[in-house]
Specification:
With about 80 residues, the protein is mostly helical. The chain is built from 3 helices and no strands.
Length: about 80
């Protein structure tokens, strides 16, 4: 169940990141994919850095979604300018 929460949190924050920072958006589908993957990755890498419990999954998944979406957007923009 934790993995599903992390993926959903990443999906939501990935889309929010794309909407808030127009310069790093990957489009709706791209933001969703990057956010979901980032949410799962963040959930696996960050659990010891935040509080225990269900909030742990939401926070770590959300942070992972934000980070991966932003990084992927920046890389995409850098590659398109080359």
């Amino acid at each position: 169940m934790e993995y599903i929460i992390q993926i959903i949190a990443g999906l939501v924050t990935g889309n929010a990141t794309g909407a808030a920072a127009k310069g790093v958006t990957l489009g709706t589908v791209g933001n969703s994919i990057a956010g979901a993957v980032g949410g799962l990755g963040g959930g696996l890498l960050l659990p010891n850095m935040v509080a225990n419990g269900s909030l742990d999954s939401i926070l770590s998944g959300g942070i992972g979604g934000i980070v991966l979406t932003a990084v992927a957007g920046v890389v995409k923009n850098m590659m398109s300018k080359s």
